[in-house]
């Protein structure tokens, strides 16, 4: 299913109606990046065209079906509009968001880039993740074209590398354009970094995620790198960078997640 | 002035009354970390004792005087309570916040720490920042005990090192206890990393800041490191780590800021 269709929003009373589509999930729960993209699309429709920095707190799992996204403009400034939003499911809130929106086409070039895009083999030499009837890799992978760096794919095969890092290429299938909202999806689409640690593999619930979009990507493959430095007190961060084909950093992300748990234990 | 007194909040209709005290400012505008600490104190009083992850969007400068902090509980879960808040000044909103709160005393120890506290000379061999009658270092420094790593102090003397990094020690004066809210102050108290770049020195307005608190610090000096990797399109991030005397990471922060501008140009 096209990403644009899957994140379509329709104006309604006090916000927007939308639908969590099936096929964007992991074990029945919609991917967190997909949910953020859907809500940010509504916030943007109420404010300015591009997300600059959006924070989402994850309140309950998003299941396929209709949702309502209420939006409130907090402040309209000269450069940015700040907005908040609540994504409501049939019986409880799914996401609460706060973000600012602007026009990224207007931004000037880089002054300093003190980091390099991750070095990776070409996409055809990486590990393509495709949905498995067993549930993992998840159904989401049918809506993405994701290629993991072979050095980081050990965790998926039950052979963790010991390094909580995930690098890979990503794009939307069939040359769909990648907009700033798709970057939010990509920032939470790769397997968790900690699949490469000794922690048990399981659901890694996101508590909070902030994605900064620095620029609109050029068409083509995006290079991503996610890493975790601190797993303390049952919590961990996952920091992400997304680079476009021209070597420009287009997004930075950080999420706070809980260490893996059995999905059935809630 | 004591930090606890400077961040005191009093329940009132639909939230809390508080005061932005003078002496916590840079050029007349209250420090962003101080404002976040004050608002988070109110959010915590309405929810659970410790901030776990708090995001603030900065809408207008905070001037000394009374403010009202309205708080809304978004969700009360088993482990965390999610809340949002608005800090209103006399005529316009100053901060909009979203965060989750819990009980950090309950958290277990570290599973993985893939980083080290910054190496620094002892505090007495570092550069103590004290308020200058010329306005910089700012009045805020009278309410903090801050010692910058000598290698990073070049920018303050008009001799930028070229490396957008700020390391240093920090504590509250007169052995005041450091709670989770003081960590939010500390996460935004050091001179901007980019004072060590070729960019002109000026006001670096924070757009958004997220601080994660991972644990309550042991008494004593805290070690901090702030760094910037990407200055693009007029925006930059500043990533912070705060470590306690026992070598535990107690907070992670990231802010999105605009490149320096002349304070008078707004």
Please outline the helices and strands.
The structure is a homodimer of 266-residue chains.
Chain A: H1 3-6, E1 9-12, E2 15-20, E3 25-26, E4 29-30, H2 32-45, E5 50-58, E6 65-76, E7 81-88, E8 93-102, E9 110-113, E10 127-128, E11 145-148, E12 165-171, H3 180-186, E13 206-213, E14 222-227, E15 230-232, E16 235-243, E17 249-258
Antiparallel strand pairs in A: 1-2, 2-6, 3-4, 5-8, 5-13, 6-7, 7-8, 10-11, 11-12, 12-14, 13-17, 14-16, 15-16, 16-17
CATH fold descriptor of chain A: Porin
| CATH architecture annotation of chain A | Beta Barrel
| Oligomerization state | homodimer
Per CATH, the superfamily of chain A is Acyl-CoA thioesterase, double hotdog domain
Which spans of chain A have pLDDT < 50 for at least 5 consecutive residues? Answer: none
Share of β-strand residues of chain A: 35-45%
Classified by CATH, the class of chain A is Mainly Beta
Please trace the helix and strand order of chain A, writing H or E for each element. Answer: HEEEEHEEEEEEEEHEEEEE
When the domains of chain A are counted, the total is 1
The mean pLDDT of chain A is 92
Number of helices of chain A: 3
Which radius of gyration of chain A do the C-alpha atoms yield? Answer: 18 Å
- For the record, give the distance between the C-alpha atoms at the N and C termini of chain A, rounded to a whole number: 29 Å
């Amino acid at each position: 299913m096209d990403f644009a269709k899957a994140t379509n929003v329709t104006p309604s009373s006090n916000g927007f109606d939308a639908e969590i589509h099936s096929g964007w999930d992991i074990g029945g729960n919609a991917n967190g990046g997909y949910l953020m993209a859907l809500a940010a699309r509504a916030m943007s429709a109420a404010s300015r065209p591009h997300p600059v920095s959006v924070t989402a707190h994850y309140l309950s799992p998003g299941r396929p079906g209709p949702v309502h996204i209420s939006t409130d403009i907090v402040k309209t400034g000269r450069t940015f509009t700040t907005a908040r939003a609540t994504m409501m499911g049939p019986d409880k809130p799914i996401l609460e968001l706060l973000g600012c929106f602007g026009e990224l086409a207007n931004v000037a070039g880089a002054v300093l880039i003190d980091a390099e895009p991750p070095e990776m083999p070409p996409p055809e030499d990486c590990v393509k993740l495709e949905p498995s009837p067993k549930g993992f890799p998840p159904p989401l992978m049918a809506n993405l074209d994701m290629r993991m760096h072979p050095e980081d794919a050990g965790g998926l095969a039950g052979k963790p590398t010991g390094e909580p890092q995930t690098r890979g290429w990503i794009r939307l299938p069939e040359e769909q354009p990648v907009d700033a909202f798709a970057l939010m999806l990509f920032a939470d689409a790769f397997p968790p970094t900690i699949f490469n640690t000794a922690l048990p593999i399981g659901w890694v619930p996101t508590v909070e995620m902030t994605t900064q979009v620095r620029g609109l990507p050029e068409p083509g493959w995006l290079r991503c790198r996610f890493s975790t430095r601190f797993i303390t007190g049952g919590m961990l961060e996952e920091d992400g960078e997304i680079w476009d084909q021209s070597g420009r950093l287009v997004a930075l992300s950080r999420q706070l997640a809980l260490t893996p748990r059995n999905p059935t234990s809630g």
